Structure formats: C-alpha cells, structure tokens
Amino acid sequence: MAISDADFSVYLEELCEFLRIPSVSTDPKCASSVREAAEWVKSALKRAGFSRVERLETDGFPVVYAEWLEKPDRPTVLFYGHYDVQPPEPLHLWQSPAFEPVVRDGQLVARGVSDDKGQIFCHFKALERLFRKTGELPVNIKILIEGEEEIGSPSLAKFIESHRELLSADLLVVSDTPMFARNQPSVCTSLRGLVYFQIDVRTANSDLHSGQHGGAVPNAIQVLVEILSQLKDEKGRILIPGFYDDVIDYGLDQLNFDEAAYQDALGCTGLVGEEGYTALERRWYRPTLDINGIQGGYTGEGAKTVITCEAFAKLSCRLVANQDPLKVAKQVEAYLNSLAPAYASVTVQNLTAGHEAGAVRVDSDDVGVQAALKALESVWGVKPVLQGEGGSIPVLTTFQKLLGLSPVLMGLNLPEDKIHAPNEQFSLVNFKKGILVAETFYQAI
Amino acid sequence: MAISDADFSVYLEELCEFLRIPSVSTDPKCASSVREAAEWVKSALKRAGFSRVERLETDGFPVVYAEWLEKPDRPTVLFYGHYDVQPPEPLHLWQSPAFEPVVRDGQLVARGVSDDKGQIFCHFKALERLFRKTGELPVNIKILIEGEEEIGSPSLAKFIESHRELLSADLLVVSDTPMFARNQPSVCTSLRGLVYFQIDVRTANSDLHSGQHGGAVPNAIQVLVEILSQLKDEKGRILIPGFYDDVIDYGLDQLNFDEAAYQDALGCTGLVGEEGYTALERRWYRPTLDINGIQGGYTGEGAKTVITCEAFAKLSCRLVANQDPLKVAKQVEAYLNSLAPAYASVTVQNLTAGHEAGAVRVDSDDVGVQAALKALESVWGVKPVLQGEGGSIPVLTTFQKLLGLSPVLMGLNLPEDKIHAPNEQFSLVNFKKGILVAETFYQAI
Asked: Nearest-CA distance from B288 to chain A in Å?
C-alpha cells in the first residue's frame, strides 16, 4: 500500500504542472487558463485509466466528467471537486509567486494546492493506483470536476439538472475541507452557506478638493464607513433585522481545541465574535457577516487631498441551518439600503444572485461517512473525529436537491493551509497520506 | 491692453506644452517629469525676458528663480507658484487623458491647468507683455516657482531660510486660489491649514478564509471601519478631544452664495457638515476632518471570500486660526490610537510631519490686496469681493515667519474647475483675463 519515493516524486511533479495553470475563475483575464486547467484534468483522468473522459460544456466554464461502471452489483460513487482557484491577491504577501509551486519546509506552496487541486489529485492518483494494481476499480466511479466553485458554481445547478441520469449515484464524495488538525483526521458533517454582496456609494458627480469643499460636501468613504459600522453590535451580534430568526442550535461535539494556540498560529493578538459561544461554535455553527474588501479615494503613495465621490465594499454572510439564503439576502439588502443617508446614492448588489448557498448537514450514520472514518483511521493510525466546517461548497445543496445525495466530506489537508490567502500550502505528508486514504476509502465502500 | 487672437493661440499652445509634462510630485515614477517641468519653467521665464533665471537645488525637487531688479526706488514683488501637480487618479473618470490637454466647451482640460500651471503662466505672459511693450517692468520682480507644493513643500522652508536675502521683498503675490464665482472676481484673505495622516490596521499574519475562520478572527477592515466611524458625531462635529480648543470666530462677509446651486453643480443630493454654520463658513472658517482614501481586502472583480489582515485609510484635517497644526496632529494621533482594540495593531503616521501647515489670514488693508482689487475691477468691470478659501498653501506660513510677508491671494480660476479631481479645467475666458489682471496688477503696485 505504501507509495515509493520514485512514484511520489512523479506525483509531485504532475501536481506542480496542474498548479502552474492560473485558473482563477473570478478573473476574466484568466479565462483561457481556466479552460487549460479543464484540459489538464481531462488528460490526468485518461492517464489514470479512465476510458470514458469528457469535457462537457456548461453556460460558464466546462466540467470534466469521467466514469468507470464495470461492476453493476457494486455501489456507484460520484466524486466531485473543482479545478478553479481563488485569486492570488494580495500578490506582495506571497513569499514566492502564487503560480510557481515550490516545496518549502515540507509544504508544497501554490495557489489552489489545498483548495482544491491537491485534494482532487489525491483521488486521481488513488484511482490510478487501483487501476494499475488490478486492472479495475473496487466500486463504480463517476467523476465530476467543475471550474466555477470559487465563484459559487453559477452554471453547475443547470448542468446537474440536465444531466441527472449521467450523474446518478449511491454516494457523493468530496475532498474540499480540512482535517480537524495535524495528525487528527476527521469527517465533516456540516458546512455553512454563503451570500455575497457589493455595496456602492456615490455622493457627487466627481471627486472634489478637500480644501475647497471640505466641510460642506458628502464624502463617499464617510458614508460607507458609517453604514458598515452599523452591521454588528459591540457583542459581535449581527444587527440585520430577522437575521437569526431561523438559526437552529447544532450542539457541539466534545473536541479538544486550544483557542490560544489557534490565535497564536494565525498571528492574532485576540479572537473576536459573538459573545457566549466558543471559537469552534462561532466558526462552524453560527452565522457571520464579514467585510471582504473596501476601496475608495486615493490609495497610492503619499498624500492626496481629495473627497471622493465613490466608494465600495464587498461583504458576505456565512449561513447555518436553517437559514434560507434568499431570505437572508433580502434582509441584508433591505438593511443596507435603510442605512443610506438622503445625500448619498447607495446600491447593493447580490453577487451570489441565483446561486446563493444554504448550509449543509450530514448524518454521521451514513454509509459513506462510516467508510471514510475507517479509511482515515487505517492510514493515520488515529481515530478520526466528526467535525463541522465554516466554509461553503455552494453546489452541495444542488446535489442534495436534484440527485438526493448528501456528501461524504473527507478532508485531506490541514486548517493552517492558508486557503484563499497568500502562501496557500499542502503538507507533503498529507499529500501522500491523502492518496492512501482515498485508495483505502474506495476499497472500504 | 487687449490680447490679439494670434497672440492668444500662441499662449494656449505654450501652456499645453507645459501641461503635457506629468509633474506629479507625490509619485516617485514621475520624478524625471517633475524635473522636466522645472526646466520648462526656466525656459519660459527666459523667453519672457528675464536675464537672470536659475534652477536652484533643494533637498527635493528644484525651485526655479528669476529676478529683474532695475528700479531701486520701486517696491519688489515676490511672485510664488508651483509647477508640480496632483496625481491624476482615478484615471477612468477622465473624459480625455489627464496629460493630453484639450479645449472642450470653452475650457482647457488637463491635470494642473488651474492648479497651478495655468495661473503661474498668466503671470509669465503678463510680465513678457510688459517687457515687450516697454523693455522694462513697472516694479522689481522676483519669481520663485517650486515643485513640491502638492506634497506640502517639504524642502522649501529650508530653502527659504538659506536664501532669505535672495528672496527678500516688499510684497508676496500668489495666484493659486479661485475667484469667488464666474464673473465675480475676489481677493482671498484666509486659507486653511493642513495635517494629513495614514492609519494602518493589522490583525493577523496573513489573510484568512472567511468560511474557515469567519466568526472567530478579527477583520482589519472591520476594525478600521469602527475606528473611522467614531471621528464625527451625528451633528458633523469632530470628536477628537481638544480639536476645537483654539478655533477663533472669523465672522463672515455678506456674500451672495446659493447653496442649492452649489449642491446641484457638484451633483450632490445634499450638503453635510457641522450644524449651525452656512456652507461657506464650513468651507472657509471651520476646521474639517475627511477620510481621503481607504483600502483593504479584495477589491477586484467578482467575489473573494477573504478576511483580510491589513487595511489602511488616509485622512486629513483642514485647520483654521488659531489651531496649531503640531498640536492638532498629536491630538489626532492620540485619539486614533485610543480607539484601537486590543486585538489589532494600529499605526498612525503623520504624512505632513515636519511640514504641517497652519491657517493663513491676511489684512484687507494691505497695499498688495488693494492693488489686486483695483486690477481685478479694471479687467472684469465688476467690483471684487473679499473671500476666504478652504484649501491650504502650506508654505505661506513659512513666508510669513521667515520673510515677514503675508500673501496677496489673487485667484484667477473658478471654483468649479475641479482641481485635484478628474477633468480639471481652466476657462479660456479666465485664462485670457488672468493675463490682463496680472499685467494691470504689476502696473498698479
């Protein structure tokens, strides 16, 4: 079952090739690279041993589909992942270029290495190894790799709807979440949902001189700041009317989590959030509202004495069961608009419109969850735990709705891997064990 | 006295040549253009008829100095202006490129055309015309044109100090402020001072995923927004302790100012500011605090679910008599620091350190002010008014202190000329009349 050094160095080089493709789905300038990444996935799956591998068009970036269905008496697993990545910005914080993967201190560092290229690559290699050993797979497999996960999978729902039969399966498997901790494998049984907004403020026809007009004219940044300062109270509670109405109590498993160590690892001098909850509860089981970006006025070097006429911010909410993302989106929009002063034009845009994501909850008795727990324990030699996860995989609600599948969330990377941030990494230990976990999992189904 | 069309079209082309030089003193990338603008001024003054014209080095960008001192029994006027300009950003709001001057609807449009290249050029042409007509000037003239006004003249104080004799004069003349209104000439008898800051917030080692960590970790933008939202109360009063302690009451001349028309011209749907004062009072005689720029997190296209670890803002205060800029700078820094929560690192930097500007007040009985009023009335055929001005010319306090000169502020452009903003303009009417006003002024001394 072990992976030879020779094999592993080949796997590493293959993954680096994948990571060099800047498949940033949110950036129009990267569109051709996103398509190149789809082609790379197609080749990798052919190389793995799948005879049927297809690139299928959607309204946006294509999906890559592969299947092996030679065991009619065995269950069919649908494996889902994504080949697109987050933008690399802010670039100046990367120690090495985001799309030039390097190994540093036992970590492979590159944008997308943990989210999700490295993790799906573990499955590709596991399946390739199974094919090589026996000429077949232990279960039937369907693979669906999309290129729009990082922008909320806007085209996938329609694609799934029109390919229900093609995608029908007994189990859905996803590796796009982290383990609980280094040397502590886990299966994840809840994810948060997501709605994302842009708020634009406009106060005049053009930017104005802060000397000539300062004291008399509205300032778009001031307006924006005043609105954004009214989103939470001093206890960290979100002030949007109705926001908490449908939130249910999850109850937290007893997990050994050291808040001080967590804080130190991130370089924070304190934690924040809703009073009355532990950090894990706040990260997994409580909804949030965060400002993700803000810009207005002069931000170059030195000083410019301007009163700007336009400013904007991006903000988003993570949602929990049973919040309805559409209902929350309306509440957020209404609240932001209600804070607009008469002397400013405020526009709120739902950037997740049409693909808002609800929260996901999975039953821990599920066959797939149990197989994942077994595979993780056998490879890591440590009893896995059940955990929640604060992130979102928006399309999972679609799989649930259209195919009746709830996901086995078998995370292979670590919480400290800086996904969505500069210097994203994937431990070589986790990379190697991840291949073995996937290999064992498909045998354990 | 009239200017022929042929002469005027030559003047226009010469000014356009000056405007094509992107002499943005705050931007290190423009350093060679700033020096090029100094050379251009030197040539223009030689062309005007000055035999002594020199480029003199300072600790920063050079000054250009010229003199004509052939009338020992007449007073000596020191004319001061600047050849550097504000940055052109935001570029996308310019209807034509900032450094490609064009005439549109009777306006010459380009960065720096009103502030201050066009205005100093009016004086150059006036002096050239006087030289051409009589071979001499009606008064002794010293000219000092600097290249760092838009960054607060950091090198000029030291230069003046070491060139007191060279610069000694009876009168100081400056054209770097606007007339009161179209067809309403004015002399300005007060300017506000300026202190300018950058505030940086840091909350973690790196940006974090808003799903994995949202709800538990501090957000640099949130911290910044909370700090900035505490700068003013709901009545527009600045909350910095001690800020208003030394502010004196100016008393306002009776001026015909239509607040509704002002608001409409700027495209504002309302005015703001300190309760209990008219818009003119708030613009000229009351101190301000404005956020000039803000940036943090993801500001590109689409959505990125990040909690950023760093954000910054730029902010500045306009000061009035008798606020001490150094004292105010300390008050602002202390207040901003006092608002920093324990879980964030907040740094406040005084970008005007060492060249903070105090407010300027001029006696309306001054000989120069009276000559300016006469010149303006003769050219415009309208009785000029006395007015205040909200902007700052930081170096004027230095002229006062080191040379004992208070300025004749003879503005030639219009308030609607969008200085420091996109589509800065200078009316061709004002350009032509500006030359005549300067010509008349030097004769009226």
From this structure: 6
Query: pLDDT of A11-52, one tens digit each?
Result: 999 999 999 999 999 999 999 999 999 999 999 999 999 999
User: In CATH, what number is assigned to the domain containing residue B137?
Assistant: 3.40.630.10
CA–CA min distance B316, chain A (Å): 7
Subunit contact B268:A298, Cβ cutoff 8 A: no
Q: Are A297 and A375 in the same domain?
A: no
Same domain, B420 and B346: no
Statement to judge: residues B17 and B100 lie in one domain: yes
CB-nearest partner of A297 from B292, B344, B352: B292
In a domain, B271, yes or no: no
Residue B410 contacts by C-beta under 8 Å, 6 or more apart in sequence?
Answer: B173, B174, B175, B187, B188, B372, B375, B376, B437, B438, B441
* Chain B CB contacts of A218 below 8 Å: 268, 270-272
Cross-chain Cβ contact A314/B303 below 8 Å? yes
E-strand spans in A333-405?
345-350, 360-361, 385-388
Peptide linkage before B219 cis (omega within 30 of 0): no
With 80 as the cut, is the pLDDT of residue A253 above it?
A: no
From chain A, pick out residues whose CB is under 8 angstroms from the CB of B302: 26-27, 151, 351
Residue numbers of the domain that contains B42: 5-192+359-444
The pTM score is 0.82
Q: What is the pLDDT of residues B147-171, one digit of tens each?
A: 999 987 889 999 999 999 999 999 9
- SS3 state at A85: strand
Residues of A in contact with B207 (CB under 8 A): 90, 93, 420-422
Torsion sign over Cα A372, A378, A383, A384? negative
Q: What pLDDT does residue B253 have? A: 66
Percent over 70 (pLDDT), chain A: 99
